[in-house]
Amino acid sequence: MEPSAQRIKIAVQKSGRLTDHSIDLLERCGLKVTKSKDQLFCFGENMPIDLLLVRDDDIPGLVSDDVCDLGIVGLNVVEEKRFASEADGRPARFKQVFELDFGHCRLSIAGPEETAYDDLESLNNTRIATSYVGLLNNFLSKNGIDAEAVYFSGAVEIAPRLGRAEYICDLVSTGSTLKANGLRELDVLLESEAVIIQTEKPLGADKQALVDKILQRLDGVLQVRESKYIMLHAPKSALAEIHELLPGTEAPTVLRLDGSDDKVAVHAVCRENVFWETLENLKAAGASSLLVLPVEKMLD
Ligand code: ATP
Ligand code: ZN
Hints:
Strand order of the largest sheet: 2-3-4-1-5-12-6
Mean pLDDT: 93
Distance between the termini: 30 Å
Number of domains: 3
Helix content: 25-40%
CATH architecture of the largest domain: 3-Layer(aba) Sandwich
Bound molecules: adenosine-5'-triphosphate, zinc ion
């Protein structure tokens, strides 16, 4: 077995919104892990890759300090760490290598429903409660707004009611938490999703080769999530139109159909979801025997 220095360590959220998705994604890349009792460390059984299960806020720091080689964490947390480290004069040493298309949310300014709000200028000379002081201050200074960021570690949405701030800056996905607290969303600072980050420190050839392999598999996993394999029969005369209708397809395979001179079979990978409407349009264009299959793995 490889010495631990040769094994890749990936920081993953221990328990929260990103945990299941992160581990599921790595398992789809072929990794099998043993969960230890304390759940701080998951040992990779079939690859030299181990997971470190930690609070999401610690992930950018662990990657920046080379304790972990990779990390899976929300862009909101990554950007906050970047701005906070810059403000400290110690720029973070990680790079973002992939967007993972889960954990979607946005960092927004919100205020009491009855607040008169025209545009960002309305924030001048106010207090804004947030856990994202770095991101908020960057946004305010970029837009020339003079407002005070008031740090709250949690339960930011009660700050206006407590008289501690006029506005808040917090994560929103559906907006139901804001609504339940009598707040409305006013402006968006950042659209966020889970991303994978890598340390900027060179990893050495073997480790980098393994990281590249994982990233290539991740790319495949993300691509097939929406992809479908579609098969149909079509009159030769309708091929051009049918090709146009196939979503996200480069070059379909066209096969001869036994016993038919005017019809062919068309097989294609569609890199977007195939909806009923698309099938109906294909049928209207002359296609028949339509079949749509999920794609499990893909390697370009
Ligand atoms: P930890 O104990 O690891 O510090 P946490 O409470 O900070 O956990 P979670 O609430 O599990 O974090 O959220 C983790 C990430 O999920 C967020 O940083 C964000 O990127 C993403 N996310 C997606 N939707 C939401 C949402 N509605 N509210 C908060 N975070 C969301
Ligand atoms: Zn957190």
